[in-house]
Amino acid sequence: xxxxxxxxxxxxxxxxxxxxxxxxxxxxxxxxxxxxxxxxxxxxxxxxxxxxxxxxxxxxxxxxxxxxxxxxxxxxxxxx
Length: 80
Hints:
It is a single chain. The longest helix is centred in the middle third of the chain and has 28 residues, at 26-53. This protein has one domain (2-72). It contains four helices and no strands. By secondary structure, the chain is an all-alpha fold. The chain crosses the membrane at residues 26-46. It comes from Phytophthora fragariae.
C-alpha cells in the first residue's frame, strides 16, 4: 500500500500536469492525466532503482528537469 500513497502524494503536488492545465474537452484532460500518471510512475521506479544500486536519488523537481532535458535532447552543463 506504500506505493499507492507515494503516488497519490506526488500527483497532488504542484508539479502535476493534470492540475495545471484545464480543458473543456474531456479527452485532453484524460490524456494529460495518463501522462501525469506515467511520469509519476517513472519517478517512483527511477528512485527505487537508484536505491537498489546505491546511487543518489533525485528529487521530484530534479527528475522532471532531467526528463524534460532528455526529451528535448538539450545539453545542460550545470550540476543537478
